[in-house]
Input
Amino acid sequence: MIDDTKREVLRLFAAGRELYKKRAFKAALEKFKEAYTLDPTDEPSKLFGGRCKHYIQNPPDDGWDGIFQMQTK
Output
């Protein structure tokens, strides 16, 4: 059974992913931050928040397909 906090974290993450796919990285980052604040163990929100920070500073090219390309191991 999922508790109310986890349900809200999942909702925020889903909203963040939709914004991320639309290249709205600042708005997506806010959703991921909200989710991570509610549940500091939520690694997907932390991961995507980091990707948003990267793309805010280094916007992907016009052909970006939503896939994050790691630059280091």
In short: The chain has a mean pLDDT of 91. Residues 4-57 form one domain.
